[in-house]
Write a structure and sequence with these properties.
- It is a single chain.
- α13 crosses α14.
- The longest helix has 19 residues.
- This protein starts with 24 loop residues before the first strand and ends with a strand.
- The protein has 19 helices and 45 strands.
- With 956 residues, it is an alpha+beta fold.
- The strands form ten sheets. Strands 10-9-8-17-16-15-14-13-12-11 form a ten-stranded antiparallel sheet. It has an eight-stranded mixed sheet with strand order 22-21-25-19-18-28-31-30. A five-stranded mixed sheet has the order 33-34-35-37-36, covered by helices on one side.
């Protein structure tokens, strides 16, 4: 199968009129050709002159245009770059049309033949970008096509209709969004090598990255020839002026001044002479640019990992892009984006040596709507998955030419994603406590250590719960053994207000209690002075259900597996264990041990924490599963999960003699895929033991289970659902992350959830350490830096203390926290010391709770460095540090002036910069200016090492 691709240019944009379902259409079909011949004009635009409806020709110059009947009669405007526009009258009934466009005339008026400063024109065009282009969010409709082939073999051909929310300047919290309204693709042959075929044929993020190459965004990018800092690397030459209808287009040629690593592109700009808007930009890549892309831009860590696994490489040999813009309501909007890539594929084991790979990616905007400018709230296409993977197999020959992008007349060919998590509470009626919304007395009672909590220390929980599957209800009891820390006769325990307390017994006798929000205040008949005692609480109720719409809104998940069987899990991190059982619900106090007994209907297997001690029949239709935990355990780590599981056991031999039991529970129909994935468990545990110290819970064993949701439950690690994605089998980042929590979060736990970065940052960084173990340091650095795109810098990593602050966007404590550790390792610049420090932290704080300040103080003592300002800048402030610098060439030497721009007083982190071509050395900036001279270095060869340090830079 062969398709011809050309640039699809110059589409008029217009608002989308929302039509009634019963709207009648009038169909016009035909061809657009060059006048005086029969050469087709691919991509020519057809637009009703007085309404917001249009379409475009296909590659053969053919079109089928369906006009809403109520808009006719009207005139049809036909345009294409390089041709004179044509306007014809359209009747109210359909017709077949052959339309001819005259080529545009090139003119060079005498006044413009004089010398023109091309760079001055470019500077003016860039300065006018905020004026010429819409700086608000805008709604677009579009056609998108991918055509990828290896030699003469079609690897991927897909087409889709897109609904787009486009931003002016994408940020971490305000991004372009794409919905796939309708899609089709051609069935291709994987030649018996599906993973390799998927690797070379499913390019990720190309619809999103097409939007990312928009002039409004590219002008600010690091390597753009429109960025002011790069003007000195290029020559900007005025070429000519073209007449386009009633407008004049000024053409600017852009080429590197000389071959160098900072001039990676070449291109041509077309400026509207009146507004200086960039209406077209064509660019390609230089040999130096190819070298850079092949080292840094081939899909990031995902490419590196799959290349390693599949023993195959892809290397760019050419990249070209052409983008066009058209006016609408006084502004200019993206019209089309055509991208062409050439690569070489090499895989000796497949007998592929420099096999030519070609990709064409076409984005054609067909409508603009300035009235619907809010971000989408659901059904957004995955930005890290290929478009082809997100559309169904469909080969309707009347798909695109017969589709006018007004409103879908056919049902979506996509299956809309269904949220498997039960939504329990309406967001309209619940106060979500955080910095933005404020905190309440209930938050203080939940999060603060008052004397009614610090007076006792929990030693043991004996928890039992009977699950009523039919009514989503449970009945339970908990015996709390505690040690007296200070004399008291009144104490606080915690249980959500919606859970009913049946009775509280002290020394076998009922005692009175009062309730305030989710706190329970128990009045004892005597004042306890010292020693140990216990409390018994029986209770019942329907526990809060998890709500995926809210950050860390935990609860019970009443889910179902692929065959419709009930699949139930308790996930309560953030919201707290007291949503389903009475306890001292504060992370600072962990029991020394625990017994968990969960009674469920027959026919299911239940998994909690620790060792399974017994299974006991309870009446004719229920079974009680008893589990024993012999180590301290945080409250949110105690859980239950039950479903139709199959189970197998294995052993990890440690130190040549000791063994660790490994128990696995998965859904039976996922067993083969799970066994492939779980083959990584032994090497992963060995790597983590090497880097962090011995597995923390050997008496309790190691249990791994498939579950509705991923969660680091102690010695019962839940990894979520075992997906069909084959890459997840070989690259299961969730597995690596959740198991790392056995060390970071379970063996050591933060006292206040405001410091939860200690759990999540170390667990996220552990993922890159395992990548380093399997694939080397270079890939691990890529893996860490891939987290940058997830950082929002919306608020500090550290939460608010004493209020259990958790219901906010916590992504930065994962990504930014991991990058903090990546940077700290580079600051230490001593890997032996770095890994010794990780093991020392684990050994010193094992089975304890700690605060962030205690951890930082310990790190300072162990390293002999005052690192408080370093950690405080990343943890307690929103922004990352900025290295400001200026360069001044002094003959063969380079004068460097530099300082840190930071929020934290006294911030003084060392960082690496170029010391010679291809070499780096440390400088030691503070918040005051310093100046050094670097011999034998040109300004063009200077760079700051941002691969090893998570910072921003600003050249002054």
């Amino acid at each position: 199968m062969h398709f011809r691709f050309v640039l699809t240019l110059c589409l008029f944009f217009c608002g989308i009129r929302m039509l009634r379902a019963q709207e009648k259409y009038v169909t016009f079909s035909g061809h657009v050709q060059e006048a005086g011949g029969h050469a087709a004009i691919p991509g020519a635009t057809l637009q009703l002159k007085n309404a917001g409806v249009g379409t475009a020709c296909n590659a053969a110059g053919e079109f089928v245009f369906k006009a809403p009947g109520h808009l006719l009669p009207d005139s049809l405007l036909i345009t294409s770059m390089g041709y004179q526009p044509l306007t014809i009258a359209l009747p109210a009934n359909g017709a077949a049309l052959t339309l001819h466009l005259e080529k545009a005339v090139v003119h060079l008026p005498e006044v413009t033949v004089t010398a023109v400063d091309g760079l001055a024109l470019v500077k003016e065009a860039v300065a006018r970008i905020p004026r010429n282009y819409d700086t608000a969010g805008v709604r677009l409709t579009a056609f998108y096509r991918e055509y990828i082939r290896l030699r003469d073999d079609t690897l991927n051909y897909n087409e889709s209709v897109l609904d787009i929310f486009k931003t002016y300047n994408t940020t971490a919290s305000y991004k372009d969004q794409v919905r796939i309204v309708k899609g089709r693709k051609v069935r291709t042959d994987d030649h018996g090598d599906p993973r390799f075929h998927s690797f070379i044929s499913n390019i990720t993020n190309t619809a999103y990255s097409s939007l990312a190459e928009d002039i409004q965004k590219v002008a600010l990018s690091e390597w753009s020839f429109l960025a002011e800092r790069n003007f000195r690397y290029y020559n900007y030459t005025y070429l000519e002026t073209l007449q386009q209808g009633s407008s004049s287009l000024v053409v600017i040629d852009i080429k590197p001044r000389k071959p160098q690593k900072k001039a990676l592109l070449y291109g041509t700009l077309y400026l509207d002479d009146a507004s200086k808007a960039i209406v077209r930009c064509d660019w390609g890549i230089t040999p130096e640019g190819l070298d850079y892309v092949n080292k840094h831009g081939k899909g990031g860590v995902g490419y590196s990992i799959m290349s390693f696994i599949l023993h195959a490489t892809l290397d760019f040999t050419n990249i070209k892009t052409s983008m066009t813009y058209k006016p609408y309501k006084g502004k200019w909007y993206l019209s089309s984006m055509q991208r062409h890539w050439n690569l070489d594929v090499n895989s000796p084991r497949r007998n592929l040596h420099h096999a030519p790979w070609t990709g064409d990616f076409t984005l054609q905007i067909t409508g603009v709507n300035k009235d619907s400018t809010r971000p989408f709230t659901g059904n957004v296409a995955d930005r890290v998955n290929s478009v082809g993977n997100q559309i169904s197999m469909h080969t309707d020959t009347a798909f695109w030419e017969h589709y006018n992008f007004i409103l879908p007349e056919l049902p979506d060919s996509l299956r809309k994603p269904q949220d498997s998590v039960t939504m329990g509470v309406s967001t309209d009626t619940v106060h979500i406590s955080n910095r933005e919304n404020g905190f309440t007395l209930a938050d203080t009672l939940r999060g603060m250590l008052t004397p009614l909590r610090t007076c006792y220390d929990v030693a043991y929980y004996d928890l039992a719960a009977d699950i009523d599957l039919a009514h989503h209800y449970l009945r339970g009891n908990n015996r709390i053994k505690f040690k007296v820390v200070a004399p008291f006769s009144r104490m606080q325990v915690d249980l959500y207000a919606n859970m009913k307390i049946d009775t509280i017994l002290f020394r076998g006798q009922p005692v009175p209690y009062t309730r305030a929000f989710d706190a329970v205040f128990v009045q004892l008949p005597v004042t306890l002075q010292s020693g140990e005692d216990e409390l018994y609480i029986s209770y019942e109720g329907a526990p809060q259900e998890s709500d995926a719409r809210r950050s860390m809104w935990g609860g019970i998940l009443w889910d179902h597996d692929d065959e419709g069987n009930p699949w139930v899990q308790m996930v309560c991190q953030g919201s707290g264990a007291s949503l389903w059982w009475p306890c001292k619900d504060h992370q600072s106090d962990e029991p020394d041990s625990m017994r968990i007994r969960i009674t469920i209907p027959n026919g299911f297997t239940e998994i909690s924490n620790g060792r399974l001690m017994s299974k006991t029949a309870v009446g004719p239709d229920k079974t009680c599963f008893e589990w024993k935990v012999t180590y301290p355990i945080n409250n949110y780590g105690a859980t239950f999960c039950f479903g139709k599981y199959t189970h197998w056991q294995d052993y990890l031999v440690r130190n040549g003699q000791d063994t660790l039991t490994l128990d696995y529970y998965v859904l039976p129909w996922h067993e083969q895929r799970a066994r492939e994935m779980f083959a990584q468990v032994k090497p992963m545990l060995k790597a983590y033991e090497r880097d962090f110290g011995p597995y923390p819970f050997p008496r309790d064993g190691f249990t791994l289970l498939e579950s509705p949701y991923q969660m680091e439950h102690q010695s019962g690690v839940c990894i979520g659902k075992v997906l069909k994605d084959s890459n997840a089998v070989f690259f299961p980042t969730v597995l690596w992350h959740e198991v790392a929590h056995e060390w970071w979060g379970n063996a050591i736990t933060v006292k206040d959830i405001a410091d939860m970065w200690v759990h999540e940052a170390f667990a996220t960084y552990a993922e890159s350490l395992f990548v380093e173990d399997r694939m080397g340091r270079a890939v691990a650095i890529e893996y860490s830096n891939a987290e940058r795109g997830s950082v929002k810098n919306k608020e500090p990593i550290t939460g608010v203390y004493n209020v259990n602050h958790i219901h906010y966007d916590i992504g930065d404590m994962y990504s930014k926290g991991s990058l903090l550790l990546h940077t700290f390792r580079s600051v230490l610049n001593d890997d032996a010391r770095w890994f010794a420090l990780l093991r020392d932290i684990q050994a010193h704080f094992r089975y304890q709770t700690l605060s962030s300040d205690e951890l930082v103080n310990y790190i300072c003592r162990q390293t002999g460095k005052d690192l408080h300002a370093f950690f405080d800048q990343y943890l307690k402030h929103t922004s990352i540090p900025v290295l400001e610098y200026s360069l001044r060439q002094q003959g063969a030497s380079l004068q460097l002036r530099y300082r840190w721009k930071a929020d934290e007083a006294g911030f003084n982190m060392p960082v690496r910069v170029s010391s010679a071509p291809g070499k780096t050395a440390f400088i030691y900036p503070t918040t005051s200016w310093k100046t050094i001279t670097i011999p034998h270095l040109q300004a063009d060869d200077f760079a700051v090492d941002e691969d090893h340090f998570y910072i921003a830079t600003r050249q002054l």
